[in-house]
Amino acid sequence: MSQEAAAGALPLAEPIEARTMAKVTRRLIPFLVLLYFVAFLDRVNVGFAALTMNKDLGFSATVFGTGAGIFFLSYVIFEIPSALVQGRVGARRWIARIMVTWGLVAAGMAFVTGETSFYVMRFLLGAAEAGFAPGILFYTLSWFPDQHRAKLIGLYLIAIPLSSFLGAPLSTLIIETMGGLAGLAGWQWMFIIEGLMAVVLGIACLWYLTERPADATWLEADERAWLTQRIAVEAKAREVGAQHRLADIFVNPGILALTISYTFLILGLYGLGFWLPQIVRGLGFTGMQTGYVAALPYLFATIAMVVWARRSDAAAERLWHTVLPAALAGIGLILAGLFLDAPLGAIAAFTIAAVGIYAVLPVFWSLPALFMSGTVAAGGIAFINSVSNLGGYFGPTLMGWFKDGTGSFSGALIVLGCAVLLAAAVLFVSIRHLLAGSSGRAA
Asked: What is the CATH number of the domain that holds 354?
């Protein structure tokens, strides 16, 4: 299509685009980041509950690790069905339903009494939260044109390390100060308070979120018209080739390589995330100190994520901006395993690992655009995200096995580090291949 034809199909005045997208960004981004923040907080806060819950309920490391990981089994099973239902009932109502449901289940975690109920509630939590992440991304398709969505993903992902950075001291504060109130332990209050946060936000979704631009009274009439037309044109373009999407996904070597590498990255991310509070506590820190020390790696990880993503975009370079932080994360985990008996060295190693893992995330999610577009890209991203979350089961479970089997986390951290290094190697080979293929097609 010529530039003149494109302009005729989509009259775009830059001032109205800037004005409209500024309003949409201010209205939606802070709220969506808050939703994602609470989602990850309710997902990983069991790691802080374990500081006292494991003793109260008599959980071994294997029981805790398995229960923490079971979340991801149901999450993977129900993610696609949940996304399909959302397409029928609308994103706003379905996101609200997901948040209210998972908030109630998360609060219900306060009343687990043993191994079986722990497994059941974690499984239900994963089922309740399934579809949330793709649901948010689906919702943004109605509000953010393609050229604005990369920045959105970067902002969206910041909520992941922030949930650990801010959630660590918050969770430990609740545990340390509210224990005994109304006859409940501190970890029970933590689940109740943080779970009800999701319920409140879920209800707020119904009145704060707008389903589509045409209904946005907070936009001017010309802004609504421009955004509605722009989104409609892009949606129509995404329909091209939709009937071949599944076949393209399952046989695409690029998608399979990214899925394998991301699974190993997730293995390290959640293996560390769920167990870090207990590891830090084992280094000799008190309850509140544990919260602050466990938050430290995620402070640097949040900064690194923003700086590294901007550097990658500015340099228009993906290979080394993906491989180097992944390799750094693997080295950090291995060093943590080797120096686990030295508190300062271990904390420094955990910080290196967190910086590497989180720095790679926004750059990683720009990779599918190197060899996919339209519906195939959307389906490929969903496939990578869904399948690789299985790493979230094996990471914390592996840590529990090693702890009970050897009495230490050292071996597990070294194994996780090797897995993340393998992810870096797969990324190096696959990205070079994808870049070579892109150059060949361009030529």
From this structure: 1.20.1250.20
